[in-house]
Specification:
Layout lengths: L1 H11 L14 H11 L8 H5 L14 E8 L6 E4 L5 E14 L2 E10 H4 L7 E8 L11 E6 L5 E5 L24 E2 L13
Parallel strand pairs: 5-8
Antiparallel strand pairs: 1-3, 1-7, 2-3, 3-4, 5-6
């Protein structure tokens, strides 16, 4: 009986005080869940953090990992991108990404932020916001984001399984860039993060 109790305690992590490992099918999902569980990093409100079990992702689908051709736009002008608050984010179109998804051709603008260019470790950061046919159904109505890095050549990989929600979905204290309407994919991108259920 004593050994059975010890075994149960070990399985439930209740005797050692250890927390269960973060859930996830891929390293990206595991890291996202770990960050959301960590009160020092999580965008969740305290009341949501208390009941947080894990984010809801679509199953990983390799069909949503695509190779894109990057056409740089070095002459593009800086502009003030609207956000969910009064803040304006200074951005420019770094280039146009052309790719095929589910047999259809698409073009999306990828952005570079002035603040990131001047932040150590983020100098080569690119921001890909997009809308698709899942918005408002299984994903956040305002669209999702993908983080990218400037490639050495003119091609790059877009992994839609790494699409995530703006932080303002979880907490209205965040100021999130509004996805431009022309970055729209007219099919269901059933990859990445789903809608957050509070």
């Amino acid at each position: 009986m004593r050994y059975a109790i010890i075994l149960i305690c070990t399985l439930l992590f209740s005797c050692s005080g250890k927390q269960p490992a973060a859930r996830g099918e891929t390293p990206f999902q595991v890291k996202m869940n770990a960050d959301f569980k960590d009160a020092s990093k999580s965008p969740l409100k305290p009341k949501d953090l208390k009941t947080f079990k894990g984010l809801d992702f679509f199953p990983f689908d390799e069909d949503f990992v695509v190779k894109a051709k990057l056409e740089r736009t070095p002459e593009s002008e800086w502009f003030k991108m609207k956000t969910t608050t009064d803040r304006l984010s200074k951005e420019r179109v770094y280039g146009i990404l052309s790719f095929q998804l589910k047999g259809k051709p698409f073009k999306l603008k990828v952005y570079q932020g002035e603040e990131n260019m001047n932040t150590e470790g983020l100098e080569d950061y690119l921001f890909l916001p997009f809308l698709d046919e899942t918005n408002g159904e299984t994903t956040y109505g305002g669209g999702r984001y993908i983080d990218l890095r400037i490639p050495k050549g003119d091609s790059m990989e877009i992994d839609f399984n790494r699409a995530y929600n703006p932080y303002c979905v979880y907490n209205d204290k965040y100021s999130c860039p509004i996805v431009p309407r022309d970055n729209y994919i007219n099919l269901k991108v059933e990859a990445g993060l789903k809608m957050f259920e509070k």
